[in-house]
Amino acid sequence: MKTICSLNKLRAIALLFVVSLFISQNVSAQVQTLTLKDAINYALQNKADAKKAKLDVENSNYQIEEVRSRALPQISANGNITYNPILQLNALPGDFFGQPGTTLLAPLGQKWTSGAGVSLTQTIFDQAVFTGLKAAKTTREFYQINQQLTEEQVIENVANNYYQVFVQREKLAVVDSNYVNTSKVRDIIKGQFDNGLAKKIDLDRMTVNLYNINTQRQQLINALQLQENALKFYIGMPIETKIIIPEEEFEVTPQSLSEVPNTANRTEYLALEKQEQLLNFQKKSVIAEYYPSLSISGSYNYLGQGPEMPLFAKPADGVYWTDYSVIGLNLKVPIFTGFGTRARVRQADVEIRKLKEDMIDTKLSLDLAYENAKTQINNSIITINSQKENVKLAQEVLDNTQNNYYNGLAPLTDLLDAENSNVEAQNNYTSALLDYKLAEIQLIKAKGELKTLTN
């Protein structure tokens, strides 16, 4: 019986090993190392916003084809078959039938009528069509600029969230290091307490501090998971994928602050300029309603009539087929539209003026963003240098306080304060680095160089 139980245990262990091996292989296959460049390029290929912007560009080509079609011949075929159960009687003078002075009721038409034909319409002059053709190229350019703007927005969101993840990981690393150091101190105090060289209250306080650090660690782990999920969302990556961010990605790199960027070259401003061009074409399209339009039309038809269904019938059945054609020149001259066209022209003009105000406001906003980014960069560099020295000093204070405490020259309160100060200094340094990186992104954006992050 014991042998059977042992075999069952061995089988269970073997099965568990195989399952764990399979799971570990799947997990390792889903782990992906992400540099900032990798994350951005992944987002540009997989994020829904970037894909939709590309589809808008593709769709603009079809819109251009639709406008161009209005200048091409319009050809259609038609056919019909009609049955008249009761023919209309028409009152005709009897003179036509050799009965002067009388009126005869005679049916006109046939019980069955069938027709088929082809018609063609070709615009010769229509100012609205010509204006639409001119606007077609601008429409495509607008969607291309809009695609670039969307990609820049994706890059900005990815970069911001990427550095947020890095900061959370750095803070977690600080807490982990603090947890390890505090555990060592607690173990030393426990050894001293066991030997009667330390008070129980000191050991209890270190144990409580260790629990608090562990709670803080769990909170950071949760915050990190949420931030990583947000990053995966912004790059369009499956949430279950594990990511690794290399250490070298978070470095302070010098930025040129002397060159003032040209706002007119920013994608946001270029998009407004293209939109202004489109609104001008829209206004011209409304003005085109004042112009006459000229087109030519023609048709060729085949008509069958008789007492029976004309299809497949012959003259012997009383059914006769004849053909006829029509060619026409159509001229439309607008004379009075109740001032509706004038009202639409003025509405279009108001839209153009509103857009000009948006362009002025956008320029001010872009200039403000650049100046704020410069200020934040300068302040962040000062803070980083200060916090870097503060971290060194806090570590020295902690080392000295630990040594003094072990030698009975400092109370436990000083040691706890030194540990907290050290953690706070490291977190402040990490936060200063984050502020710098976020400001760096805004500065790169203000220069219109976000695409350089993909290189």
Question: What CATH architecture of the largest domain do you see?
Answer: Up-down Bundle
Number of helices: 8
Please trace the helix and strand order, writing H or E for each element.
HEHHEEEEHHEHEEHH
Distance between the termini: 68 Å
Strand order of the largest sheet: 2-5-7-8
Query: What does the largest sheet look like?
Result: 4 strands, antiparallel
The tally of domains stands at: 2
- CATH third-tier fold name of the largest domain: Outer membrane efflux proteins (OEP)
Mean pLDDT across all amino acids? 86
**How many strands?**
8
Can you tell me the CATH class of the largest domain?
Answer: Mainly Alpha
Beta-strand level of the residues, as a percent range?
Answer: 5-15%
Query: CATH homologous superfamily of the largest domain, by name?
Result: Outer membrane efflux proteins (OEP)
Spans where pLDDT lies below 50 across 5 or more residues: 1-29
Which helices and strands occur, and which strands form pairs?
Layout: H1 2-30, E1 31-33, H2 36-46, H3 48-69, E2 74-83, E3 89-93, E4 103-107, E5 112-125, H4 127-194, H5 200-235, E6 242-244, H6 267-287, E7 293-306, E8 320-332, H7 340-406, H8 412-446
Parallel strand pairs: 1-6
Antiparallel strand pairs: 2-5, 3-4, 5-7, 7-8
Word description of this protein:
- Mean pLDDT is 86; it is low at 1-29.
- The strands form three sheets. The chain has a four-stranded antiparallel beta sheet with strand order 2-5-7-8. A two-stranded parallel sheet has the order 1-6.
- The chain is an alpha+beta fold and 455 residues long.
- It has helices at residues 2-30, 36-46, 48-69, 127-194, 200-235, 267-287, 340-406, 412-446, and strands at residues 31-33, 74-83, 89-93, 103-107, 112-125, 242-244, 293-306, 320-332.
- α4 (127-194) packs antiparallel against α5 (200-235) and α4 runs antiparallel to α8.
